[in-house]
Amino acid sequence: QAQLVESGGGSVQAGNSLRLSCFDSGRTFDSAIHLGWFRQAPGKEREFVALMNWRGDRKYYGDSVKGRFTLSRNSAKNTLYLQMNSLKPEDTAVYYCATSVYRTVQFSPSEYQYWGQGTQVTVSS
Fold this sequence. Notes:
By secondary structure, the protein is mainly β. It has strands at 5-7, 10-13, 18-23, 34-40, 47-53, 59-61, 69-74, 79-84, 93-100, 114-115, 119-124.
């Protein structure tokens, strides 16, 4: 069973928006230093999308999503969000949230310990 549970994926037309949620079912946020979103398209390696430190005062975005995606969290609900605007067909992938215990900012998925099951995002042209 996944420690994190993603939701909010779906199929939309290019230019539309989706808001992904990541619920900390396993309470991994308690020990996490960084919270991140990654995505993986068929035949592709898992790709960094966005991350932030636990406090939420430092955020990083992949070049391909910068200016379109926004991270946020609701600490009381133990939920991480990824607001995705102006979606493009290239955004089509399974999106995963993950947490890392390392204090140094980590952009590689191999440095994250806990993962959700993923939620499918499909953007049609």
